[in-house]
Amino acid sequence: MQFSINRQAFIKSLNDVARAISSRTTIPILTNIKIVLSEDELILTGSNSDISIETRIEQSDTTAQLVIKEKGGITLPATFFANIVKNLPADDLMLAVDGLRANITSGASAFTINGQDVRNYPQLPEMDDVQSLSVSAAQLIDIISQTKISASTQESRPILTGIHLALNGNDVKAVTTDSHRLSQRIVTLTGTEAHVSADVIIPAKSFNELQSLLEGQDRVDIKLSANQAVFDLGHTTFYSRLLEGNYPETDRLIPTESTTELTMDAGALLGAINRASLLSHESRNNVVQLTLKAGVATLTGTSQEVGQVQEELVTKSVAGEDLEISFNPDYVRDALRVFSGKPVDVKFTSNLRPFTLTPAGETDNKQLQLITPVRTF
């Protein structure tokens, strides 16, 4: 195998597939990057068993300046190889493979590194009984960014580490919960005629890596099977395994009525919580307290070791019964960032029941964050 290529174009593709490569794997060859050269394109693949990313550089792509001299394949240590390429001196590089040894030259610099047989690299998943649809990349980014915050990071309940997607026609409902908070986003897909009925749980870690690849994309073709989801981004294909099992019924967790309601700018509330958490982070329980009394909202953060901060909130409205409620400020801070500084309605039922944050004036729960309060007595 032998080819030359523009180094910056090669680095971009290396970075894309490197998102799927982990140093912690039970299959040693998966710490390598797979490089295959055909008659008209260069294919790079990275995988960690849970996700796989394949990107193609075509000879017809003038920016890549790919010159194919001899086709073939090899797998090379991903981190070491990427570091070499990033530090080469010239604008282009040449890679030539002799057996299981790769020779990399650029300007006056030359490296030789050992690789492994490309035939030992696991094959990409095969898909059966596929459902397909095309979605807007912007809508997919919206779904991911507004729900991934509530996915659990604890492997004790693997099902909660995923984003639950329920597709019905052109509607997508995405839900995550770690049992302390919940995020829900309901979107009607635009620009697609596919009517897919599917219920899948995709690991939030997978969506984290996919979100970075979606930037700058227009549309994404999605294929769903019984145990895999594939996202086609043109020259790059992203594979993710699906989580097995039934996601908890979350609709019953969302309150249908409220006794107290607060409306204010998300950015202003976020700033106040940031200030209150300066003190709460110094205490052992990391809790702030919100008091709603006679139409006035007050936020308090306390640390027995350091002191106390108290702030009267600048609200648009406070209505309903008086209330005193405590919560983890980090959960509310994550939720508020979703609303990009727009006005939000915060609705309460009691000091021990979950409360919700929604865009001001909206009642359809299409964009909802739910937080469980902290019992302080």
Automatic annotation (TrEMBL):
Residues 135-249 form the DNA polymerase III beta sliding clamp central domain. Coiled coil: none annotated. Residues 1-125 form the DNA polymerase III beta sliding clamp N-terminal domain. The keyword GTP-binding does not apply. The keyword Oxidoreductase does not apply. Forms a ring-shaped head-to-tail homodimer around DNA. Belongs to the beta sliding clamp family. This is Beta sliding clamp. It comes from Leuconostoc citreum (strain KM20). The gene is dnaN.
